[in-house]
Amino acid sequence: MGLIELDRIISCSSEDKVYKADNLLDAATYKKWKCANCGEKQSTQITSVDIGNESSAFVEVLVGKATGIKDQDFEVLVPAAMFLSHDDAKAMTNPNKVRTFSKDQLNQAAVEQKWDRIKVVCTQPFNKHVQYGLAFITLHSPENKTDSGSSTAAHVGQFKLKPTPSDETMKPGSLFARRSSSKEAEAAVPEKKTPKAEKRPSPPPQSTSNSKKPKLDTPSPTPRAKSETSSELSDLLRGVVFALSGFQNPLRGELRDKAVAMGAKYRSDWSKECTHLVCAFANTPKFNQVHRAGGKIVSKQWILDCHHKKKLVPWKTYQLGQQSSGSDTEEEPVATEQQGPKGKAASQEEEHDELPVLPDLFQSKHFILYGQFSDEQRRTLRRYITAFDGTLEEYMGDRVQYVITNEEWDSKFDEALSENASLAFVKPSWIYACNEKRKLVPFQPHVVVPK
Question: Fewest CB within 10 A of the end CB: N or C in the chain?
């Protein structure tokens, strides 16, 4: 069998100073080729990529190997992703957007392979007067997740975990063995027996005048009496299925808990099985939806009074707005005081006077109020957002899309963008403009821009 001689080494990813890759060219010397460092990883899989932008409009990430010769050997890992639109690039709005590309968003053909080279291509065709690039780029691999989990077991972000002994190892059945041993230890502790009072017959009453009258023990309320009271309370709203609209925590949680405690069933949104809508404002999109369906719309006071009085009060007393009540046989209509001709005429005018329908401008949009507001301004913003079918969040989360604020740009906004890149920081003037024109106007002229 003929021997094929190697001509030259084109390239290598790593080699030792003594044991170089060229040693393999001379088979007679039996010299070896070794990597530069012990345990060196030549290539790895990339499962996710974090990119922090710096005024770039598009960012593309390609991967390759050290053995590649030409640029054609690079493959696309992250297709060209938009970080700034044309309008945002012109106004330099949110130039430091952060995006995370998970494994599902990467090129699957490139994810399955291992790489040791990356190439990042940044472009900015919309604005020729700004320096652009990247703030940071972070690559993640399956090995990083396992390593980081073992090295940083005591902390996850800023949250400190409960320390565990380092020499403690998990074995099959060890967790249940610890639980059983703890139960046996608890069972070994003798229970303290409380002495029971013996019942003795009371002495016969004495007829002497100087004798003291025996004290009669007044019966104290027993747990049974409390359970009877709670059972009566739990049946007040049995058969009622309700939804809430226009309320924010903690009031929303209070209304829900009190109604459920009285036997009602809660639904997060109005459905066919709902019987009552507890609404904060009349003539909202949700109000009109239930009104057309013939549902019963009441104010929050109906739940509060039922819980306070511990009895079912007629819902029509708390009816919100003008709506068709349908056939209600379970409750008697509330008796009203005698009205004069003037009162009857006024009531007839109210029946025919219909409020204008408000458009659902903010449907599927989530807001949060940040910073200092006057009481009147905060109340007005809450009212407008809720009336136009928007959702006002109490805390910052992934669902928040718009931050309404009077503040100037600060570092906290950058931190929020690093967690949620789709946030928009908008001034209250945008909400007022939508209310005045009764339509969804562009928010870009009202955004808070970094200085």
Answer: N
pLDDT in tens, 3-41: 777 788 877 777 888 888 887 877 666 678 788 777 666
Distance between CA atoms of 140 and 47, rounded to whole angstroms? 6
Tell me which residue of 203, 383, 428, 361 sits closest to 280, measured CA to CA. Answer: 383
Tokens representing 442 are: 């562009």
> In a 10 Å sphere around its CB, with 0-12 CB exposed, 13-18 middle and 19+ buried, how is residue 191 labelled?
exposed
DSSP codes, 400-424: --EEEESSPP-HHHHHHHHH-TT-E
> Strand, helix or coil at 387?
helix
How far is Cα 96 from Cα 413, in angstroms, rounded to an integer? 11
pLDDT in tens, 271-302: 888 999 999 888 788 888 888 888 889 999 99
Q: Higher-confidence residue: 187 or 286? A: 286
Whether the bond between 250 and the residue before it is cis, its omega within 30 degrees of 0, is: yes
